[in-house]
Amino acid sequence: MHIIARRTLVEFTKRYPESKGALDAWWAEAKHARWRSPADIKQRYPSASVLGDNRIVFNIGGNKYRLIVKFNYDSGTGFVRFLGTHAAYDRIDGETI
Predict the structure, then answer these.
(1) For the chain, where are the E strands, in sequence order?
(2) Which of 15, 43, 31 is nearest to 69 (CA)?
(3) CB 50 within 8 A of CB 59
(4) Strand 65-72, strand 77-85: pairing
(5) Per-residue confidence at 12, pLDDT binned at 50, 70, 90?
(6) 65 CB contacts (<8 Å, ≥6 apart)?
């Protein structure tokens, strides 16, 4: 997958350095993945949540952080839509962000 906004992940790790290992591992795996559907992602990440409009919520760092990525499976692209603490995630609408 081509993940758009790697910079968002890098900037986040500057603010939350303890997230770096988990986010780097997720990004490294995602960039080599060939996910064709939410089911493919759920097979690898059973704790991920499927939202509408091809959005997936990943639990990062033992569920301390949340990452929402909107996927275009046909083009093999994922767009980072949100990355934040679990508390910040509770204040947003993951379906529309």
Answers:
(1) 2-4, 49-50, 55-60, 65-72, 77-85
(2) 31
(3) no
(4) antiparallel
(5) very high
(6) 12, 16, 19, 22, 23, 59, 83, 84, 85, 86
The domain ranges of the chain are 2-89
Distance CA 69, CA 65 (A): 13
Adjacent-strand bridge partners of 60: 65
Q: Tell me the average pLDDT across 39-47.
A: 96
pTM of the model as a whole: 0.95
* pLDDT, tens digit (0-9, with 9 covering 90-100), for 60-73: 999 999 999 999 99
